[in-house]
Write a structure and sequence with these properties.
- The chain is mainly beta.
- It is about 5% helix and about 45% strand.
- The chain has one helix and eight strands; from the N terminus they run βαβββββββ.
- Strands 1, 3, 4, 6 and 7 form a five-stranded antiparallel β-sheet that branches.
- A hairpin with a 6-residue loop joins strand 6 and strand 7.
- The protein starts with a strand and ends with a strand.
- About 15% of the residues are buried.
């Protein structure tokens, strides 16, 4: 899943991703910078989501809060930059695409 860094997030370093409902599973979601060739770049932030559990009918909204990193100007994220959201594979040391019930990005 890809998301776009908002102007506010680029200025404050705090990206909020609102979800329509809490996901089923608990996991860490990683925001990954995309290289110019389209491949995954470095992880720039991570957020933990606590799932509602299999079979739950819970329908509350949820927010992922990413504190964006960037020690120098070259690493600073810009407004309009695209990030890829992924989870870590449980069976391998790789990342997997994730799909979230996205409501809005701040």
């Amino acid at each position: 899943m890809e998301i776009t860094v908002t102007k506010s997030a680029a200025e404050t370093g705090h990206l909020r991703v609102w979800l329509k409902r809490v996901p089923v599973l608990s996991e860490t979601i990683y925001a990954i910078r995309i290289n110019s060739d389209g491949s995954d770049g470095p992880i720039v932030a991570e957020a933990t989501v606590f799932g509602r559990g299999e079979g739950s009918t819970a329908s509350q909204r949820s927010m992922l809060s990413f504190r964006l990193v960037g020690g120098n100007e070259a690493q600073k994220l810009g407004s309009g930059e695209t990030l890829r959201l992924k989870t870590r594979s449980l069976t391998e040391e790789t990342f997997e695409e994730c799909e979230l019930d996205l409501l809005m990005i701040e």
